[in-house]
Sequence to fold (109 residues):
Amino acid sequence: MTHVQMGAELEVLLGDLTIGTLLVGGQHEGGATLARFTPGSDYAKVAPLFEEFEDAVSEVSLHAAGDVADRIEALLPSLRLPSGSSRERVYDLQIFRDGGASFRTEENR
Fold:
């Protein structure tokens, strides 16, 4: 799954939690993959972390945003196909209140 296809629907995992799904929309010039996030039942457990990141970015508090990003990375974000059991580690996972999301695969890290 290293190369993520536009239109792919992927489950988002943080540790043992399946927090929702991503519908891949395309790739940004900087290498990040852009997507639409649909929360699952476990998302409520981690939503404050992503909201804190979004607030730090909005306030241009890069130090705070970096700290929160490190906490998200520590949860080992990964993606998998809904029918699959194999996971692929992703980096720089960002999920915003409006449903926008982005991530990087190993090849675009």
Observations:
- Residues 9-108 form one domain.
- The chain has one domain: 9-108.
- The radius of gyration is 13 Å.
- The chain has two helices and seven strands.
